Predict the 3D structure of the following.
Amino acid sequence: MSNHGAADASEGVQREILSAYDQPETSEEVSRRTFMANATMTISGIIGVVLAVPIVGSLLPTGTSGKGTWSPLTKTEADALNEATSKPVKLTFTLKYKDGYLPTTEADEYVWGIKIDPAKFQAARPDIYKVAGGNTTYPAVNLGFVIFSPICPHLGCRFNWSASANKFLCPCHGSQYNFDGTHVAGPAPRGLDPLPLREQSGAADVTWIQYQPNTPARIVVSYQA
Ligand code: FES
């Protein structure tokens, strides 16, 4: 794909993401209550765009096109997310994935969720709100929650939450992140990447986006919508 084509594809991706938020929304409080009542998180549909960059980690089991659907968030996980005022919640899913004519396959996947005040998050994360090209085209905080990609923005390993360190720790090269995803140590050039979260018809939808690793700006590599 040429650079020009890649840029067009990336812009197309961002337009698609933006359009998802053009729909009228209920108030945040009503949305949150509805979300928790239904305790359902899904990824609906998928459109994949791949640029010629090296990717170490990916949530996409095979390729970047096809259909993907998350299984419902359990009541226990939904309750934990709503109470997650000081520690993140690991939200696990069964990713059902269909690529072309191949049979549907399943893979265990996860994201990290935190509950946080939007103003507090914005103040803590200049890499999202102030770095040129770092801003997301969707609200990083929605329904009072932030959903983080589990992929380290350095070179794509998967980080974990350490209760003793009170940080996210990446085992590959030592990058560390606070509860709100702020980068505090190690070689990563930016904080953790938020994923879009929206309420629709009483359920919560997460759109999976994979960003280019090891760049201060968030450059879309692929996404599921
Ligand atoms: S991949 Fe996480 S620190 Fe390098």
Q: What stands out?
A: Residues 3-224 form a domain with the Rieske Iron-sulfur Protein fold (CATH 2.102.10.10). The helical segments are 3-19, 28-38, 75-82, 118-124, 126-129. DSSP finds five helices and 14 strands in the chain. Residues 16-25, 36-71 have pLDDT under 50 and may be disordered.
